[in-house]
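Subject: for your reference before the review

Hello V.,

The reviewers asked for a structural picture of the protein, and I figured it would be easier to keep everything in one thread rather than splitting it across files. Below is the amino acid sequence we used in the manuscript, unchanged from the supplementary table.
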Amino acid sequence: MLHSELCSQLENIKNNLILGLSGIFLLTEERSRGLLVGHHAKVGGRTIDFTQVSKMLADVADREIAVKECIKSIFRNSLKETFETIKVYCGDSNQTKIFQNFGSYKVAKHLRNAVSHNNKWDLRDPRKELYPGLPFQWSDLVISADLDGLPVELSHVTFEIQLALVLDLITHAQQELK
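And here is what came back from the structure prediction:
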């Protein structure tokens, strides 16, 4: 893969993240929810009816839960896809060390692993010893040994931090890799 192709894939990931977030915004607007009633999407041989979603979004408590869970899913997927795309590119182009030197790499790696595997921090190496160098810090996020085995919590890894982390990985890959 050429660097220009990597950059294009990363822009697609960023655009998908923005599309997902804008879709949530639109669906939480009262005037938009009515558009869902009586409409559906066809995926292969299946029809997905949007009426249930409209009802769920009409209830304030249900809407808050649905929006939070949807945003969590969007960020999990964006982080995993960003990290894995860069990781594969770096492996293929012998630039893994450059990737590992990104300031956000260690935090991104461990957060990606946590959200990919049971949404719990696993801060142990294959020998089951804590990773050397803990705590890892990037921006306002600190990953310390006391998190090992605990679930990833939004109170610790906020949406703002997750967005900044994904955008940081993309920016570094575009600017520092060849």
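For the response letter, the relevant points are probably these. The chain has a mean pLDDT of 93. Residues 10 and 82 are 7 Å apart (CA to CA).

Happy to draft the paragraph if you're swamped.

O.
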